[in-house]
Amino acid sequence: MLTQRGISLTGLLVALAISGLLLSAASTFAARVLVNHTLMQHTLRMEDELNRLIQLMASEIARAGYDGAAAMRAYHGQSRALSPFYPALVTGHHPAEPANSCVLFNYDKNHDGLRTVNSPAEVLGFRLRNHAVEYRIAGKPCTAGGWQDLSDPATSRIIMLSFILEHSADGQATRVIIRLEGHLSGYPDISRTLQHSVLLRNY
Is the N end or the C end of the chain the one with fewer CB atoms within 10 Å? Predict the structure, then answer.
């Protein structure tokens, strides 16, 4: 006697239901992995931008006050205050931002002892404005508009920038403490805070 073998309709429906559940779970898992991977990429990009910003500011501020004609001025007995690059650095802020969130400084890029505003720009600065780090243009003060954005609002939202001057007990050394804090745009919980100490050799 021949026996029929196969899958019953009930078994087929159960198998399809289980397959559907497995496929749905796999799709959900894959979507979560993709979201987490994308978020990690954006976070790394934000961290890279914050590191780039603080390194750029530190390297520029470290040159503050340099005067290519300083030796000649000293030879002629001129006071440091007569240098066009004095004072080396001052802090301030835009009226809508916290105190010490702007720094203005000078240094002699072409070593000629003369301060130029445009090319090469020797009147420099950085500031916090509208959750972005901005770069000084054409010698404008902290309170003026027209500065150039350095940070990308699509990547980072800068929530704090400060420049604090620290003087040694003997008055022989001055440092600028740069503190920068930002978070990933659209994700306030993903934030980073960086700090860098810069010795002003020409203060």
Answer: N
* Residue 16 covered by a domain: no
Q: Return the half-sphere exposure (C-beta side, CA atoms, 13 A cut-off) of residue 198.
A: 24
Query: How many domains, the chain?
Result: 1
- Give the pLDDT confidence of 53-87 residue by residue, as tens digits: 999 999 999 999 999 999 998 888 998 889 999 99
Maximum alpha-carbon separation in the chain:
123
By C-alpha distance, which of 161, 195, 186 is closest to 42? 186
User: Nearest 5°: phi and psi at 150?
Assistant: -105, -30
Assigned domain for 170 exists: yes
Check if the beta carbon of residue 68 is closer than 8 Å to that of residue 112.
yes
pTM of the model: 0.81
Amino acid letter, residue 48: D
CA-based nearest residue to 64, from 101, 114, 105, 102: 105
For residue 195, the number of C-alpha atoms closer than 13 Å in the C-beta half-sphere is 5
Domain that holds residue 179: 39-199
